[in-house]
## 1
Amino acid sequence: MSNALQIGGHSLVLCVRSEFLTLKEAIIRYEHNVREDKHASKIGYLRGNSRNNRYIVLSEYNNSGHMREITAGDKEFNDKKYIKALLREYHEKMKADYEAQSKTYKNGKVVKNRWRENMVGFSEIVISFGTDRNKEPKEGLSQTETNFINAQVSLDRVRRFANYYCAKYGVKCLLIAEHNDEKTKHYQLIFTNYQFENHKNLRFDGKGETLKFGRNMQEMGGAAFEGIALRGEPGSKMRHKNIKQMHKTEKEYSTEQEFKNKIRQSIVYEARKYIKKKESMFGKVYLRLEIEDDKAFITSLTNLVLDQMKDNINIVTDSELKQTVKELTNQLLNKGEVIAKNNKLEQSNEELIQENKKLKEINANLNNQDEIIKGRNLQISNLSAELIQKEDENNKLKSRLENIKVDIAQIDKLKQKADQSDTIQSKLEEANADLESKEKTNQSLKQRNEELEASLSSENTLKEDNDSKRLQIVKLQTSINSKDQRISELEGEVKNKDETIENLQDKLTVLENFKMKVISFISKISNLIPNFSRLLDDEPNEVKNEIKSKIAGKDGMGIGF
């Protein structure tokens, strides 16, 4: 047995959808969800009083995430300026934190973050409900199913979902709106979409991450509404309508004429873009689509659209039926009465389904008319484009014709003058021919003269350059000869000095030998000569030391000097 409420043997199911929003988009969605006065006045699909809606908002008195319920008629809460100021405050905090960060590229360059206008600092999540009953392609919930859903789903389960979402992704829930003024109760939630811990918006790149995010939301929805509704099964062929699609099918009209008037307004608005009055070349006003009576054209289109959409629009004419539906909705709050009423309503619903099938079969042949109309509209568009092109071509031809007329008049005048001056023209042609011949000859001579002058100039330049180079060569040769001579002289001087050094070395060797002999002799007789040390006082220290070392080496003892 499924863990969800059932109606007619079918379980309640839920669907969770999300959309990431910029600041501008978030303001518009917030205004829509709280039914801001100017915004709500443009909503044409509301069925009940918006004061029956319920709203839970993040308390503006703290930043801890606590939420409180407010009344639907709170004028300050619904004020456009208040909404803008509230969301901009959160936006500025996210922007300041993001731009305080920087990123480093592979090349080492550091760049500070910059918040772009298209960055999505907010998100909206829509929670809607249905049943797992197999439905026709364009078939929605039955009134019985709608009433059952409206009685069973509650705001406290949505708060549970919001807590799951905030805890998982590190964001804040700013608004929970329970809409009871439309056909089926649903919830629209506004969240921040910025993670201060990671300093970035919550985004999912790639199909895989996006699908995972979608599965996570469905799982959180199933957990929040456990025992009431099931999450959608993976791989299910059942498709839920989005909010825009739901709103398109929720419009009601009290009479057929009201519906026709609405269609007429829409067609007039669109047709006026293409059916325009134009001034022709002859001053007669005409329409671009060649339709003299646009009212008849619009009326026929209105009737055609009405016939095509009768089986998709419910026109409610019975005021008592509306009252009965309201009473049934209130009675369904009692679960005991729900089951008893459901059986009768399901039987009535089956009869209505059968009748609806018969109507669809009757109107099946009308589907081909749409293709016929499209073909005719295409033909009209093509003809209009061709007409505009032909008009442009006609205007161009008219302008060319006027210019040709002016040229013809000028040609006539020139012909008259030409007839009077045929002789002059002949002589002039001869003179021009002679002049052309002389000019050609002169041009040839000029060209030849220029060539000769260029050649002469080139030869003179080369001659001057050669003379300069010859003079340089002579100077360099003289300098080389002078240096060669000086080198020879220095080599002779070096040779003479080398010979002198050799002679001096020979003499030094002889003197050194003689000195050694003298020192040896003195060392031998030193002991025989009294006061020998005084004899050496006048001698250089080098000689003294050498004699002393010689004597010491001889007898192994020193002599007192």
## 2
Amino acid sequence: MNPDIIIRNGTVVDGTGAPARRADVAISGDRITEVVDLDGGGIDGTGRLEIDAEGRIVTPGFVDIHTHLDAQLAWDPIGTPSCWHGVTSVVMGNCGVTFAPCRPDDRATLAEMMESVEDVPRDAILDGLSWDWESYGEYYDAIDRLPKGVNAGGLVGHCALRTYAMGERGLEEAPANGDDIEAMVALLDEAMTAGALGVSTSRTFLHRVPDGRPVPGTYAAADELLAFAEVLGRHGAGVFEGAMRLGERDNEQFDNSRGEVALMGEISRRSGRPMSFGLTQSNRRPGLAEAVIEFAKNENTDGANVRPQTTARGVGILFGLESRTPFDRAPAWKELRASANGRKLQMVRDATFRQRLISEADVHGTAVDLEQLFVLRGPDARYDCDPSDSLAAISVERGVSPAAAFIELLLETDGALVANMPFLNQDLSAVAAMLDDPLVTLGLADAGAHVGQIMDASQPTFLLSYWIRERGRWDVEEAIRRLTSDTADLFGVRDRGRLAPGAYADVNVIDMDALHLPPPEYVHDLPGGAGRYIQRSTGYDYTLVNGSVFMEHGEHTGALNGRLLRSN
């Protein structure tokens, strides 16, 4: 019987790190059936669909382990913008914030928590989700029923566990009592039985509920976290993921961070499972990232499996006409920001109002360092922070004030101007050094989160276009391994992340020369018309999910063949 699909004449980069080779790939149903080298004559017969991959690389679909698409998939089944960047499998429920388990009376609480922590609008969550669940298992069944373009699995969030078991007391700094922990353990056990990919927690002081208090679990004592670890151990599955307290209220020797990593090591040893956490470089805390990696290695030498995850580029706040501007202190700019969608550019084009914008900005100034605010001038968004792209430099170059330069750029781009202010991973050489270490995995893309502030879900395209094609920092085989089997194996995503007979047919066909990353754009496509940043790409000829062509040249084919990812 002939295969359903044959991808011919491509350069197969199979996700394992093995040398690339010219080969054909055959797919029947949802599985890869053959990978045959062209030196051996390729695959005989004819597929129902033939894809010519001459001059392209053929890779496994990318596995993104850090997303917050928990709500978005309900109204956006293809999972934008991840789907535009070769991602075929996503892990949701990171950083402790999830929508299950959830009592009916707590729906608004969890939605508001997600808005406060991850900048996903509360009303979009409440309106967009069906909320036809209470337990995590029921939630997982609801995700299973959703038509999806991508494969999706989730972690159960500590915030939801505490809210369900403890109510308002879950926000207190006092430790949970024995009954509380027993109740949370039972909830987590139910979630793991249902196939959850693990549990997540937030310990950073940056994550807060709307009234300013730290999210539930921030001050959880070690016995609470270790009780969760034992649940994972009993199931022999799952990852413990955390937004951890690194560099916060720390000394020059990073003793608090050392203790935090030691706790993660004990969680991993107690569970026998990986512990993964976000790690970024910060100019405010020089040496922290390097120190944390060494702390993690020490724990792993002692039997733990602690894996930091970082991004391939800087994490930056985006500025633009439809979101925020550097000059929002000034009354005229406040008026502009408060105006209706679609009117802002018209207001900027008005000469009288434009003069107000310029003069008031000169008076009120800005809280933003304009030397660290970089204009993402097309056609490719540059994230290497060339000083000549800063708004300060552009204003000097043009001989006008920064506000006037910003307005000129707005008018020249018909309002599409986007500027980026990195606040984490500002130093790309430090990012490269982190990624040089095999202990560090790729994560923190944050798809679905901070939708009006950042846009990092495009990191696979940046990794391949900037680090591999332009800089040659690593070979393409290692880059693809980092995007596929490394992340899939860490989170127990079975039979994905590799191109091999028997694996699920999640596949990318990529034109490396055509990979481009245009600047982000601001759209109003959330439930209720709320806005968010998205970012497209070019160069992905085909993306297949479970044997169906999902994306073709950046456009959705209509296929919704994604599956629920379970740990059991």
